[in-house]
Specification:
The chain is an alpha/beta fold and 375 residues long. It has helices at 17-30, 72-82, 94-103, 121-137, 146-151, 153-157, 179-189, 206-211, 229-238, 252-261, 278-285, 299-302, 317-329, 331-348, 351-374, and strands at residues 2-6, 35-42, 48-49, 53-59, 62-64, 67-69, 86-91, 109-113, 140-143, 162-164, 194-197, 220-223, 244-248, 264-267, 289-293, 309-312. It is built from 15 helices and 16 strands.
Amino acid sequence: MRVLHFYKTYKPDSMGGVEELIGQICSGAAKRGVTSEVLTVSKDTSTVDFGDHLHHRAKLDVEIASSAFSLAAFRRFRDLAEHADLIHYHFPWPFADVVHFASRVRKPSIVTYHSDIVRQKVLLQFYKPLRDRFLASVDKIVATSPNYLATSEVLQRYRDKVEVIPIGLDEASYAPPTAEKLRYWRERAGPKFFLFVGNLRYYKGLHILLDALPGTDFRVVIVGSGPVERELRAQAERLKLNNVDFVGPVGDDDKIALLTLCHALTFPSHLRSEAFGISLLEAAMFGKAMISTEIGTGTSYVNVDGETGLVVRPSDPAALREAMGRLWGDDALATKLGAKARERFQAKFTAEKMVDAYVDLYRRLVNASSAATVR
């Protein structure tokens, strides 16, 4: 079986949560006899060979409201889709909806619904008819958590075709950190610190985290880069924070060392654009307690309040500061919650469980399509 994934970006051009999900599915599916290819748009049009799957890139022409457009993608999509048994879209990306209809490819199709469109409210009014037609046309929609399905008005409209497949991670792909990396970060970050890992975007709530820190001795390490980085650094300087370290993007070995050493993970995302939180999964995998906010998405499916960590009101620096204080001052509580987070990860969020569910869905749809063609 051959599957074509279609999304606006992928590794190595970007390293976000959707990209990690696509990579985990492609690599895991390859072990189950499924050949995967990924098509995106990029300024670099070379093809990347990851060994167990290929990443094709059509020439990026323009970006409008965070959505990438490419004339070359129409032909590339048709050519690749011709040899695929199933098309796997990743939502939201309005351009994919356009390509879906313009190409007139008649193959089984699914869409993983990563997030509602939250920020572009005006443009959303123009996009809604296309979005609704697109979601109605695909065979299945995958929600990444029962929480998001329950709270998304869009998903509720298509409830009869939605399946829930939680995101999972392959622990074997996280190599143990070297002694050198551990020593470096222990010296730089200190013996006890909170960790944040992610793209520095408007919905991550990092401005709220910074507002929670004045007057505390909490040490915080922020890993990542992004559009609001300059604003956040200016805010930290304005607040005279000397307990925050913006370390920028780091390699996997550095990230693993930081996850190994951190006291707990803080994840203050305050808008529904944060649909799941891959770094929450990573923290759970490493047996770390977590602090997140209640935004009605998968973050509260990964981090269960009082069981694997603490969940607080969004956009509330005082509530966030109080939760951080509880974990900072109670090592036993942090250890207990971290152990439960590890148990929950193993029970629900392994890549094996996720890939098995996707491959099963692929096969059901392809077999149904084949049976319909015979009839």
